[in-house]
Design goal:
Strand content of chain A: under 5%
Structural class of chain A: mainly alpha
Number of helices of chain A: 14
Number of strands of chain B: 2
Shape of chain B: globular
Distance between the termini of chain A: 7 Å
Number of helices of chain B: 17
Order of helices and strands of chain A: HHHHEEHHHHHHHHHH
Largest interface: A-B, 51 and 46 residues
Largest sheet of chain B: 2 strands, antiparallel
Distance between the termini of chain B: 60 Å
Radius of gyration of chain A: 26 Å
Helix content of chain B: over 70%
Radius of gyration of chain B: 24 Å
Shape of chain A: elongated
Order of helices and strands of chain B: HHHHEEHHHHHHHHHHHHH
Number of strands of chain A: 2
Oligomer: heterodimer
Structural class of chain B: mainly alpha
Largest sheet of chain A: 2 strands, antiparallel
């Protein structure tokens, strides 16, 4: 088991390096850098000015070197610019060049400076991630039990009327992407045209103070899309378990139906949904981006859109690192959990 | 003139869709009569769920095709009438030479919502199936050898697939579909790589089948290569020597990114199926007969994996539709005037608390199409498991 986890961790780190390098490459393409220079200085800069501005700030170095510096495995550049000032990656404002540390990449916890929010990327991401964490917590609280209950009820008696109607509900919910269900929810529950006005159509106020009125719709919107999929997986796994030999044995012994479902079937039926729930994280991340944009909730997904839309290179890199790490970690947990929960699979 | 009441609006909309109803009735009547002779497609008409799904899908396909031909739509879709800004459904339009009502109201620029919804279906129907098909070609061409040979090749290809799968889709879209990246030409190079797979697939398919009949093989191969190269040059590089095929640059970017996002999942499915099927007796029999590996992969394994693949194909078209909507929702790739559903939902949501009608029709359209595809996949799965 230990070796298995170690090998998975190795692959995970390799994947993370590859992915961040791809993002780094794409964000550091010359049109992006040119746009950055022009937005930082002024739009009508001459091409020479752009080149020297970029060279003075270390952008003209070869890509692997820049990536190494950003990661923190190569010493940060120190360049005496064409205008005579000495600039270095690690030299902060008001710091003498001699005092600056040699390495300052994300490994050292230095995530750079956001050009849009004029703030440290690390602190921006920490705040935003906290806000999204709250959203995700409530999504999980709604989604996981809901999906499992629907799935177990549907799979308990295959082909029954409950099964048919619950399966239709879960198909309907997988067919409704967040931007559709969100729009429908806002229209029905918060617009003045319908007039119900039960909930608020924006979640901006939920950033300080979560209430039932301002947080229900975003949570419901994300939960609904993932719920159908998990419910279908649970149903499939439950129907499979319910036809197994040991369930028939239990029935023939005269165990009551409720006891069979709860004590005999449920544990084995929940192995598959567990991995599915874990693998839902990348999709949830998508949902978070859409819902945070739709409801104007300034969390992690909203930051991603802002960073990408405004060519904020450092922030976008930081956001990508976090999302890639989240996705890979959940995959790892899902793999380990699957092996741990399922006695039929052995890694040794 | 008074605006129409809801009953009149519904009747008029149903009337506008007349060609679609006729086409649907003809299709269903013909299919039900000949269903015993139509294989899996015919069996679909034994399952209610499958029939409902198929009807929903075909409704939008016919709407898209007839809409693109100029039927069904009531207006131009781009023409703006200042007096019709945000007007409720059924508002009377006092202009010469145009349809006199906005059946589903006007959007914030005074365009007809109904027409834009119909035109939006064409945007989906012309991209989603082909993008999915391309993704399948890529996934099959790489997934079969990965599953069949296993070993280092499998490790390497699976690593690549997992790499793409670990990318949050929206981040990938933002990185690929921005004007700066398009300016560097990276999407075109990606198209250059991805679009070669269908040709490779067809060539291997033909070659492995007719290897023993060189004359026939050469003819087929020449045919595939000429047509393939022509389409490839036209679509990927926009360099068709005859000048017939051209592919709008922004559409190409959307197409490429959707194919790119979908193919790793297809790869994983095909790889899993190939690993399962290669242990069967008929594969061993073919190996003993001395058939080549590609013949076994494409003519023994692939036909036997068709059930799950067809089901996944339907689901994946639905997923591609959702992805296209996501792109539109974030205003990526497609032009701002584009009537696709994602963009219209995005425009409509800004005024959602006051005016519902611009955002809801495209939302329901997208919902019903994806629901139809899901139901269709469910029906197919049920029917293909039955035998």
């Amino acid at each position: 088991m230990g070796l298995f986890i170690l090998r998975r961790l190795g692959v995970m780190i390799l994947t993370a390096i590859c992915l961040t390098f791809i993002v780094f490459f794409l964000t550091n393409l010359s049109p992006n850098l040119e746009k950055l220079a022009k937005s930082e200085v002024n739009q009508r800069m001459s091409d020479d000015a752009v080149t020297s501005w970029l060279a003075n700030r270390g952008y003209a170095q070869p890509l692997p070197v820049k990536y190494g510096q950003w990661l923190g495995v190569l010493p940060g550049y120190v360049i005496e610019g064409t205008d005579g000032t000495v600039r270095g990656r690690c030299i902060g404002q008001g710091m003498a060049p001699e005092d600056a540390p040699t390495f300052c990449g994300i490994l050292q916890g230095d995530w750079g400076q956001s050009s849009v929010f004029k703030d440290d990327v690390g602190s921006i991401i920490a705040t935003r991630l906290g806000l999204t964490g709250k959203l995700m917590f409530w999504v999980m609280v709604v989604m996981v039990p809901g999906a499992l209950i629907i799935g177990v009820l549907a799979g308990m008696r295959e082909g029954s009327r409950t099964d048919r109607s619950l399966s239709t509900v879960s198909i309907l919910s997988t067919a409704t992407p967040e931007y559709v269900s969100g729009v429908i929810f806002i229209a029905v529950f918060s617009s003045s045209a319908v007039g119900l006005k039960w909930f608020k159509g924006t979640a901006t106020s939920a950033m300080d103070d979560i209430t039932f009125a301002n947080f229900t719709l975003p949570v419901l919107t994300i939960a609904l899309y993932g719920m159908g999929y998990i419910a279908r997986m649970t149903r499939a796994s439950m129907t499979e378990v319910m036809t197994a030999q040991y369930i028939r044995t239990a029935r023939l012994k005269g165990v009551s139906f409720g006891n069979i479902v709860l004590k005999h079937a449920l544990r084995n039926a929940l192995i598959a949904p567990f991995t599915v729930i874990m693998l839902q994280f990348p999709w949830l991340l998508n949902g978070v981006v859409i819902v945070e944009t739709l409801f104007n909730y300034k969390g992690f997904g909203w930051t991603l859109v802002q960073a990408a839309g405004n060519n904020d290179i450092e922030l976008l890199l930081g956001v990508s690192v976090v999302s890639v790490v989240v996705v890979l970690t959940t995959q790892l947990i899902s793999d380990i959990g699957y092996v741990y929960l399922n006695p039929r699979i052995s890694v040794t | 003139m008074e605006p129409l009441i809801w009953g009149e609006i519904i009747i008029r909309i149903i009337g506008q869709f007349t060609p679609v109803w006729i086409a649907l009735i003809v299709l269903f009547a013909a299919s039900i009569v000949y269903k015993r002779k139509l294989g899996l497609y015919g069996k679909l008409f034994d399952s209610t769920i499958g029939m409902i799904g198929f009807a929903l899908v075909m409704f939008w396909v016919f709407t898209a095709v007839f809409g693109a031909m100029g039927m069904i739509v009531t207006h131009d879709g781009l023409q703006q009438f200042a007096s019709m800004k945000n007007k409720v459904p059924g508002t009377f339009l006092d202009e010469e030479g145009v349809y006199n009502y906005y059946l589903l109201g006007g959007d914030n620029l005074g365009r007809d919502v109904f027409t834009r919804m119909v035109k939006g279906s064409w945007e989906v129907v012309k991209i989603a199936p082909f993008a999915t098909l391309f993704a399948f070609m890529v996934g099959i061409t790489l997934g079969l050898p990965a599953g069949y040979y296993g070993g280092k090749l499998d490790t390497f290809l699976s690593f690549l697939a997992n790499l793409i799968l670990a990318f949050p889709v929206i981040l990938l879209f933002y990185l690929l579909v921005t004007p700066e990246i398009v300016a560097t030409g990276i999407p075109v190079y990606m198209a250059g790589v991805l679009f070669i797979f269908p040709i490779v697939f067809m060539v291997i398919l033909m070659n492995s089948r007719f290897y023993t009949q060189p004359a026939k093989r050469n003819m087929y191969l020449a045919f595939v290569l000429v047509i393939g190269a022509w389409l490839y040059l036209g679509i990927a590089w926009n360099a068709d020597p005859l000048g017939i095929i051209s592919f709008p640059a922004n559409l190409l970017v959307v197409f490429v990114s959707v194919v790119f996002v979908n193919s790793p999942t297809v790869f994983r499915i095909v790889r899993g199926l190939a690993m399962d099927i290669k242990t069967r007796d008929y594969v061993a029999a073919a190996q003993t007969r001395g058939e080549g590996p590609w013949y076994i992969m494409l003519w023994e394994i692939l036909p036997n994996a068709r059930g799950p693949l067809i089901v996944d194909f339907c689901l994946r078209i639905g997923y591609t539709t959702i992805l296209l909507g996501t792109l539109g929702f974030f205003g990526l790739g497609l032009s701002p005037e584009s009537p696709d559903w994602g963009s219209t939902i995005n425009e409509g949501r800004k005024l959602l608390s006051i005016y519902l009608h611009p955002a809801l029709p495209p939302a329901f359209a997208l919902l019903t199409l994806v629901l139809g595809l899901n139901l269709l996949a469910d029906g197919l799965r049920e029917e293909s498991l039955r035998d």
